[in-house]
Amino acid sequence: MQVGTRLTFLLLLTICSLLLVFSDFHISEKGFASPVFASDEPFTGPANWGGTGLMEIPSARVMKKDNYRIGAASVEPYRYYYGAMSPLKGLEFDGRITEVSGVKALSVAYGNLKDKAFDVKYQFLEESKWLPAMAIGIMDPQGTRKYPAQYIVASKQIYPFDFTIGFGNGRFGKKPLPASDESVKAEIFTDPKGWLKDSQIFGGVQFSPSEKYSFMVEYSPIKFHKQIYDPAQARYFQKPVRSAFNFGMRWKPFRWAEIGASYQRGEQFGINFSTVFEIGRPLIPIYDRPYKEEAAGKDHPLEERLGTALFVSGFSDIRIIIDGSDIRIEAQNNRYFYVTKSVGIILKLVMEIVPPNVENIHIVLSDDGFPLIAFSTTRMDTADWLAEKLTTPEFLYLSKLDTTTTGGLDAAVQHERRFTYGLRPSLESFVNDPSGFYKYRFGVATWASYHPWKGASFVVGPEWYLLNNISSSNVPGPEAVRSDIVLYKGKNVTLGRLMFSQWSKMEHEVYGRFGAGYLEVEYAGLDGELAKPFFGGRVMVGVSGSVVRKRDPDNVFRLSDTYKDVYKTAFLNTRLNIPEQNIAIDIKAGRFLAGDKGARITVSKFINGVILSAWYGVTDTSVFKDPYNRGYHDKGIALVFPIRLFKGADSKTSYRYAISPWTRDVGQDIDHYETLFDYIGRNVRAFFEKDAKQMR
Predict the structure, then answer these.
(1) What integer pLDDT is reported at residue 335 of this predicted model?
(2) The domain 3-278: what is its CATH number?
(3) Are 288 and 341 within 8 A, CB to CB?
(4) CA distance 587 to 68
(5) Among 21, 375, 526, 562, which is 20 to 30 Å from 591 by CA?
(6) In sequence order, which ranges of 172-267 are alpha helices (DSSP H)?
(7) Phi (first) and psi of residue 216, to 5 degrees
């Protein structure tokens, strides 16, 4: 670094340090000093790579809780495609693909080299009167680690300025970090002395005179010419870059959109586009038209009137018994995402239609004829609750909830539903195959079910894909249990399922499930499961297993003549629900499809109906002969989002989109029609109380 540059940076560092210490006052409109209590906003824009920061460097700022960001940026030779989210206050995750322009990899069809990575940042200290916000970050900790770093950073705001200073190794340090293969490495914890020795200082300032736009200047210590593991180094960075200072600006034309422009390294212009949304916030406001009884219907028997109102409001398989001052209702909820909302709808209909001499209300919500929950209250308490004389927690305290019920009503059924059907758009993605980085198929997946008796379903699921470029240059081995999925996914028309399913709820809140037939696109056979919730649903424990064979990829009604092996799985399943944070932790331990034994841990976060999940598996891979699977750990992420976010009306339907390697056989299980843990879902006491606000 030249002397002039050093002096400039030292001056900037000195100013930032002084401001971090003496920044607890600002000049008010009256000219007197007053204390400042700053939040992270509006300084929460994305750096080049998608995490919250300036351009090359991070800041101690994090996204607002329950927000997500997607975007793309370009600063030659790098192109970034990223997504980021904040599931908990102070915690931020981001994932990115870095494309290096002009550096080819794997094949002509694959194109430019592309690297996948994820980062995490935790703001362990919020900004206060005297102290700055402080955060610790870990970038690209696993795999090839082409762009890794670990840092500690502080940011202090004197609005409209935000000052950042940090210290980091790896990408920001004196020397690059090596690959880690399958292990996760963070030298800041495993070798703090080494981290301290290899780290360098970075810093910057943001100036936001308006919420609409900001200006930035930063000092980036990245030694591009020494980043020997960076694929761009050999071609583009043979000598040091012209300048360690970067300059930029941001413009927010809308509340949810941001455009950044920059001049970096003294030689390159950059651009950054991003959007930010609140997770689970409906794009179209949800409105369910209240039921209004027609005048002609008021002459019908009371049970029929209430049954019609329930059916029009989204319920089926309705049974009603009126016995003196008690009314008992059993119904299946087909519309409302939250079970508490369905209870609230029934209570409102009872208050509107049933005469006042009925004083006690008993509701059983069932599915396929088996009761899930029972809720009992009085007409007086319901009236006070609807009049807001009682809060919802007070109303629940006076009511009775029973999730162990197994008995339904012995009454004639109204509006019985034997057939169910539906369709959904289906997008499946396959990344990083040598024949092309991004493979996909997009089309329509349909399903239809016939319910002949209590808990039973005959299910068929044909699928059509209008766009499909899935293929692979990898040849699956004879031990393949999932790496040959391309043979099945490459079909434009397929039969995803053709099976029989039976579930039941027994005494002591024990659930059972059994399935037989073509269970998923690749496997056919038998599948079974038992599960039971404990402590109001805070803990669930179960066992499951399957015995399957491969289907013929060229004939949807036949089993494979090439692969005749029988595959067996057996698992002990546990789930820890933490309703206070809407977090679930699942552990599946046992024998996976290929015979590898071990466990998979999945962490899920529920945010306004959206479920974000990530999983990581550890199994004994010595059963595999090929080096491609040996030592590998199954991993992936999934997103479940309810259709109600886009429909403008309530709906129970949710769609699942997952990203995980298709070309590995480690830690694999069949794709279950529905697991019991997910079936039980939020139909437990712990979540009923958590979702109580949805009752109104």
Answers:
(1) 95
(2) 2.40.160.40
(3) no
(4) 27
(5) 562
(6) 187-190, 192-198, 233-236
(7) -140, 145
What is the pLDDT at residue 38?
55
Number of H helices, E strands in the chain: 12, 34
Among 629, 683, 689, 693, which Cα is nearest to 661's? 629
pLDDT score at 25: 37
Distance CA 249, CA 426 (A): 39
SS3 string, 286-349, reads CCCCCCCCCHHHHHCCHHHHHHHHHHHCCEEEEEEEEECCEEEEEEEECCCCCHHHHHHHHHHH
Give the three-state DSSP class for 26: strand
- Strand 654-659 and strand 161-168: the pairing is unpaired
Stated pTM of the model: 0.86
Say if CB 519 and CB 605 are below 8 A apart: no
List alpha helices for 237-338, DSSP H. Answer: 302-312
pLDDT value at 19 more than 60: no
- Residue 85 sits at φ, ψ, to 5 deg, of -155, 160
Least confident of 530-534, 583-587, 661-665: 661-665
- For residues 379, 380, 381, 384, the Cα torsion angle rounded to the nearest 10 degrees is 120
Architecture of domain 419-687: Beta Barrel (2.40)
The amino acid occupying position 189 is F
Q: Tell me, what's the pLDDT at 145?
A: 92
- Reduce the DSSP state of residue 55 to 3 states and report it: coil
pLDDT tops 50 at residue 270: yes
Tokens of 224: 């591009």
CATH of 295-416, one of 1.10.150, 3.30.70, 3.30.300, 2.60.40: 3.30.300
Residue whose entry in the numeric block shows the structure tokens 């600002």: 26
Which residue bears the tokens 């590998």?
Answer: 632
